[in-house]
Amino acid sequence: MKPNIFFTADHHFGHENIIKFSKRPFESLEEMNEELIKRWNEKIGENDIVYHLGDVSLGKLDVTKDILERLNGKIHLIKGNHEYSALRVSDRFEWIKDYHELSIEDEEATHGKQKIILFHYAMRTWNASHHGVWQLYGHSHGTLSDDEMALSIDVGVDCHNFYPISYEEVKELMKTKKWTPPFAPRN
C-alpha cells in the first residue's frame, strides 16, 4: 500500500505568544501543544509522508525533541524562519531543505505527475507556475488573501483547523481555483 502524503506548516510548538498573535483557540501552551500533536496523529500514520513547510517549534530543545518523537510519519522539513531547536534534532527528519520541487504520481495530472513547489514563504510566481505547477507555503498564518487565480495554498495549521492536509485535500482545493494557463490558445 502506498503511503499517504501530507503537508503542513507553522505549528510553533512551545511558542506561547502564537496563541495571542494568531488568535488560536487554546487556553495555554500545554493545551495547544497537546491538541496539535493529537490532530497530527489523528490524520497521519506511522508510515505516511509529511512535508512540514517550516516553523516546527520555538520551544526549548528538550521540549521540541519530545514533541517530534510523539509525531507520526516520515517528516521532511522545509526550513522556516524559526527552526533553531528543530535543526538540533535533525535526525528526526528524512531530510531538511530550504526549498523543494516535489513530483507526485497522479493519473489525473498532466503527464501523470503533479509537480509541487514547497517553500516556507508564499511566492507570486515560481518555476513552471504557468504550466500548472502548484506552490504550497506557510509563514503567513492565514493572513494572506487566497489568490483564486494562482495555484498556491497556505498549508499552515492556522488555515486548516490545526490539522495537516493530505495531497487529496490539496488537490480538491486546487480544483476550486480559477487559474488558466497564460499561454493557452484563446477562442
Please provide a written account of the structure.
- There is one protein chain.
- With 187 residues, this protein is α/β, with parallel strands linked by helices.
- The chain has one domain: Metallo-dependent phosphatases (Purple Acid Phosphatase, chain A, domain 2, 4-Layer Sandwich), CATH 3.60.21.10.
- 21% of the residues lie in helices and 22% in strands.
- The protein is built from four helices and nine strands.
- The strands form two sheets. It has a five-stranded mixed β-sheet.
- A hairpin with a 7-residue loop joins strand 5 (99-105) and strand 6 (113-119).
- The longest helix has 15 residues, at 29-43.
- It is globular, with a radius of gyration of 17 Å.
- It starts with a strand and ends in a 12-residue tail after the last helix.
- The model has no long low-confidence stretch (mean pLDDT 94).
- Residues 4-120 form the Calcineurin-like phosphoesterase domain.
- It holds the Pfam family Metallophos.
